[in-house]
Write a structure and sequence with these properties.
Blueprint: H1 2-18, H2 25-32, E1 38-40, E2 49-51, H3 56-60, H4 69-72, H5 91-107, H6 114-119, H7 124-133, H8 147-151, H9 171-176, H10 180-187, H11 193-196, H12 206-210, H13 221-234, H14 236-243, H15 246-253, H16 261-265, H17 285-290, H18 316-351, E3 353-358, E4 361-366, E5 377-379, H19 383-407, H20 412-421, H21 424-455, H22 471-484, H23 498-522, H24 524-527, H25 534-564, H26 574-577, E6 579-581, H27 582-588, H28 590-599, E7 606-607, H29 612-643
Antiparallel strand pairs: 1-2, 3-4, 5-6, 5-7
Helix pairs in contact: 5-7, 13-14, 14-15, 18-25, 19-20, 19-21, 19-25, 19-29, 21-23, 23-25, 25-29, 27-28
Length: 646
């Protein structure tokens, strides 16, 4: 019994030691409720008086007005008391514990209505507290800013309340108490003018640009992105156009060598561009550009850092280039997407749907005739052309991943991919390496083809074995459309079809546009000595729009023509194995088959079918490439719907 009583006594003693003191607010306010109440500081009072008075009315009206004094000052054990030994209230811990308590209370609720689910979201004060714990102000240094430094201890109001110490118009004075140099520079800036002269319009204060609770070192990428976004709150069009340029795209991804808003416009001492003090004024612009491009010629000042394709009066060349390139995209996609949909519909009806009559009524039913197989294959592509196709496929997919991440840098997938690879520097190396492989594959193929046909004096430049467009291609295309609409038979194709020739020459067109513009952008440090700056604006537009066209045709039209149409679905392995089943060859290229039979050369092209193991490997490789291509297409479309094209 004695032991139990002893344990109970100790528990009660411990509880009493940790329980909230029993002092009432009225007792505390007997002294602290007098606004003039103060105590001397220093050993003998020589350091002046420390105010301890409280405006009770203002405190009760603040967001903390329903708290008791001892809720925060829970280490006061006696009245009166001395400051010695008392701790500053821990605002951060209190906010986080409050959030945990509210979450626990909400978890116990039985009815999960929509209102209750909304209440489960974190309150704003918790979100801001968590952000503060990750900021430079929470590093534990004695002279750093804590919650009370900005919000005061007792008069905490919402930040949009003019009584709040954190009201946006007061932030320069509040922040300037510590950041004196920044305040001095800002005070003479364009952003400070509105506080002195309201008729000039609204202006930007510290909290507008720096996000009060998320202050992080300026070298951090997250900080740089946040400031850029905040600039866009007022300068929406300027930031949007900046993000369409190489500067904005690479800066967002973390390239430290390209300029950000504050580099060209001075972060705190911002003045108008017509002010001679501005780094981008006519007097200083060349020197500002040469801070990064040291050897650039005077023509660099014609580079449009905020140029866009929507303003003909200010940017006529960019406007014309953008509309021309977008026009090509629209025409190509309309034609070939329509071509693919009509083809799918016609082939689906022919191969998958059958009809019969029952009691005079036409009834449709599903059929899917099995693919024809034989024990012989027709060799369509030798090993070196297949190797060239692999080089093209892998380099193009790498270029799409790296290039489209730069074109749409603020999408979630782009930021994740760039970070995973190791940052924009590594990304750039990968992109340029893939570009070299792509150009070598294209040019190497061209040289090999020319060398082969030039050695053959009997080669017909517009014959069936040539990839040059000819009259039959036009006739085949018209006949194919008639077949789409059920107005005629499907044309009989020879070695190369009109859509294959489009794919083939589209690669050369893309290599010319993307390759030329890419080399110009890559060699910009040297070319800026000779070329005007606007050339690089034009190169960026051509490079990005042509790449977008390549993605939306290659991973849609090309994939459909060769893999996704009913006759080929789900995969055609000819580019992996190099051979077609002879029966499939007869069906797909009847004219070529008949020519080879008539000339007696068919046997020269017949080979054994690939083994079962090889066939499995080809399908694994094929589905892998298709999966990668479709994934890249989805990521690009996400960027397109979020950001647009140009």
């Amino acid at each position: 019994m004695f032991t139990r009583l002893l344990v109970l006594f100790l528990v009660c003693l411990a509880g009493a030691a940790t329980a909230e003191p029993a002092f009432t607010d009225a007792e505390c306010l007997d002294c602290h409720g007098i606004e003039s109440y103060a105590v001397p500081t220093g050993e003998h009072g020589e350091a002046g008086m420390r105010p301890l008075g409280l405006n009770v009315s203002a405190w009760r009206d603040s967001v903390h007005g329903d708290l008791k004094c001892v809720t925060c000052h829970d280490d006061v054990r006696e009245l009166p008391h001395r400051k010695t030994g008392l701790e500053r209230p821990d605002c951060v811990q209190c906010h986080l514990e409050t959030a945990e308590r509210k979450a626990a209370e909400q978890a116990q609720r039985k009815r999960q209505t929509r209102a209750a689910r909304r209440e489960k979201e974190k309150p704003s004060f918790v979100i801001n507290t968590e952000r503060y714990t990750r900021s430079v102000h929470a590093d534990g240094k004695a002279d750093n800013a804590d919650c009370a430094t900005c919000h005061t201890a007792h008069y905490v109001y919402p930040s949009d309340d003019p009584r709040a110490s954190t009201f946006r118009e007061y932030s320069p004075t509040l922040c300037g108490a510590c950041h004196e140099k920044a305040l001095a520079a800002w005070s003479d800036s364009l952003h400070a003018a509105a506080l002195r002269r309201p008729w000039k319009g609204d202006s930007a204060t510290c909290s507008d640009c720096h996000n009060a609770h998320e202050i992080a070192p300026k070298e951090q990428l997250a900080t740089q992105r946040r400031v850029t976004k905040n600039c866009g709150d007022c300068h929406q069009h300027e930031v949007a156009s900046y993000m369409m340029t190489t500067h904005g795209q690479l800066a967002w991804l973390g390239n430290a060598k390209v300029p950000r808003c504050s580099d060209c416009h001075e972060g705190h001492a911002t003045v108008g561009i017509d002010d001679p003090r501005s780094p981008v004024s006519e007097e200083r612009r060349l020197d500002t550009c040469r801070e990064c491009h040291e050897t650039a010629g005077p023509g660099i000042v014609s580079y449009k850092a905020h140029g866009n394709t929507n303003n003909f009066d200010r940017y006529p060349l960019m406007f014309i280039t953008g509309k021309f390139m977008v026009g090509i995209v629209i025409l190509v996609l309309i034609f070939f997407y329509t071509h693919s949909m009509l083809w799918f519909y016609r082939e689906y009806k022919t191969r998958v749907l059958g009809t019969t009559k029952v009691d005079g009524v036409t009834v449709r039913y599903r059929i899917k005739p099995p693919k024809k197989h034989s024990d012989r294959h027709f060799q369509r592509f030798p090993w070196y052309w297949r190797l060239n196709h692999w080089a093209l496929a892998l380099s193009v997919m790498t270029l799409v991943m790296t290039g489209m991440a730069v074109m749409y840098p603020d999408t979630d997938w782009a930021m994740r991919v760039v970070a995973a690879v190791g940052g924009p520097a590594a990304f750039g190396i990968i992109h340029r390496t893939a570009g070299v492989v792509f150009l070598l594959a294209v040019l190497g193929h061209l040289v090999a083809v020319l060398a082969r046909v030039l050695r053959d004096p009997n080669f017909e430049w517009f014959g069936p074995d040539s990839l040059l467009p000819r009259k039959k291609d036009w006739e085949d295309m018209k006949a194919q459309f008639r077949w789409f609409f059920g107005k005629g038979e499907q044309p009989r194709f020879d070695r190369f079809t009109y859509w294959e020739k489009f794919d083939y020459w589209a690669v050369y067109w893309g290599a010319f546009v993307i390759g030329t513009s890419g080399v110009i952008l890559w060699a910009s440090p040297t070319l800026l000595e000779f070329l005007p700056g606007w050339v690089f604006n034009i190169a960026s537009i051509a490079h990005g729009v042509e790449a977008f066209l390549a993605v939306t045709t290659l991973f849609v039209v090309h994939f459909f023509n060769n893999h996704f149409r009913p006759a080929k679905f789900p995969l055609d392995t000819v580019m992996f194995s190099g051979s077609w089943d002879l029966e499939e060859f007869k069906e797909e290229r009847p004219l070529e088959y008949e020519r080879l039979v008539a000339s007696g050369e068919l046997e020269k092209h017949l080979v054994k079918p690939p083994s079962k193991l090889a066939n499995v490997i080809y399908h694994i490789l094929g589905f892998t490439l298709l999966g990668i291509g479709i994934s890249l297409l989805v990521m690009v479309l996400i960027g397109f719907f979020e950001r647009g094209l140009v």
